[in-house]
Predict the 3D structure of the following.
Amino acid sequence: MNRRRKTIVGVRQSWARTPWARLVNSQEVQALVTPRAERIIQLIDLAPGRRYVDFGCGTAAFAHLLARKAGLDEPPLTLDLAPGPGPVDAIAWPADLPLASKSVDCLTSLYFARRFDDDNLHAYGREIARVLAPGGAALLLEVAPVRARWLDRLHHQLLSPGCAHVDLRGWGRMAALLTEAGFDAIDLVNVGPFLFPPIPRVGVLLRRA
């Protein structure tokens, strides 16, 4: 494990052990932060019989909420960088997902991309494209940057717990990093409104034909 990866995983692991992490990743808080669960279900076409994976699950509470609302027969497969306070099924790295090619129908990765540099995010995109089955869809949702520098710095500080560093990317940068990853469609999607916290988000829907 290289030094950068070890640092990212170590910070995530230390954060996951804190009571604050358990609270932030609880089903109640996650539902407040991302209130439109039905919209996410619609975007990724989450339905019974579809194989669902969430990476960056924390406590896995929100992934299980989505699965329950969608009426899935099987629980989601939940992945994270490190063991967390909830049921993490497997430890993984975004550039090397422990999943077979074309084995996933639906994937979510919420508020997770900011902790990775551009190279790792691009590699993550290639891995998502590899594991998505034909007709599969993945949603990446992250906090977006803002123009006011002082406010952007404040957002970076607020979002830094559990992250070795924070890189907030807008739609342009996200799309550029994912364009040649192997997807058949990349779309900017709105999963808002977001009232808590009142910070803009960027949603990227990735699809395989």
